[in-house]
Design brief:
178 residues, alpha+beta, 4-stranded antiparallel beta sheet, two-stranded antiparallel ribbon
C-alpha cells in the first residue's frame, strides 16, 4: 500500500514571524543609540575640519597681504574677535575673494552658509564661528567672547571657536589656553 504524505504548506508560521520581529526589534534597540552617537561625532569632526579651514585661510591671507583679514582701515592694530554675524560676514568676504588680490582663500560649503544675503560660515549646529586674530603681531591673542576662556592669552595668530552641540556644554576650539 502506498503511503499518503501530507504536503507541507508554503510560507511561515505565526511563531516564526513573531520570532523574526522580536529579533529585529532587539537589534534596532541596540543600533539606534549607536547611530545617534555616530551622527554627533560626525558633526563634531565636520566642525573641527571647518574651523581648521578658517584658520588656514586666514593665515594664507596674512602671508599674501601682511595683515590679518579684518575690514578696518587700519590694517595692524589691537587683536580682534568676531562678535557676531556682521563681523564674521566681513571677514568671510575678505577670505572668499573680496580682497585686494581677488584671491579665494576659503570656500564655504552650502550647508554651512548662513541665511540671507551675508556670507556667513555657520557651525553644524547653525551658529556662526567666532574668529580671533592677532592683529598686532605679538604672537598671542587675548581670548574674548567665548565665555569660559575670556581674558586668557593664547599663543596663536588665528583662533576659531564654536559652542559645540546645544545643551552639551562642550565648546570646540582650535586653541589650547597657555
Amino acid at each position: 500500500m502506498k503511503a499518503i504524505s501530507k504536503a507541507k504548506p508554503n510560507g511561515f508560521t505565526l511563531i516564526e514571524i513573531l520570532a523574526v520581529i522580536a529579533i529585529v526589534g532587539i537589534l534596532a534597540a541596540i543600533i539606534v543609540p549607536v547611530a545617534g552617537g555616530a551622527k554627533e561625532t560626525a558633526l563634531k569632526r565636520r566642525a573641527a575640519t571647518e574651523m581648521q579651514s578658517i584658520k588656514v585661510a586666514a593665515l594664507q591671507f596674512y602671508e599674501d597681504h601682511r595683515y590679518m583679514p579684518w575690514p578696518d582701515a587700519v590694517k595692524v592694530g589691537e587683536d580682534k574677535w568676531t562678535s557676531g554675524t556682521a563681523d564674521q560676514a566681513q571677514v568671510m568676504d575678505l577670505l572668499t575673494g573680496a580682497n585686494p588680490m581677488k584671491k579665494l582663500y576659503l570656500q564655504i560649503p552650502e550647508k554651512s552658509r548662513g541665511s540671507g544675503g551675508q556670507v556667513v560660515f555657520n557651525d553644524p549646529w547653525g551658529q556662526p564661528y567666532q574668529i580671533g586674530m592677532d592683529r598686532n603681531m605679538d604672537g598671542v591673542v587675548q581670548v574674548q567672547g567665548t565665555g569660559t576662556w575670556d581674558g586668557n592669552t593664547v599663543v596663536e595668530r588665528v583662533l576659531v571657536f564654536c559652542p559645540g552641540p546645544p545643551g552639551k556644554g562642550k565648546p570646540m576650539k582650535t586653541f589650547d589656553i597657555k
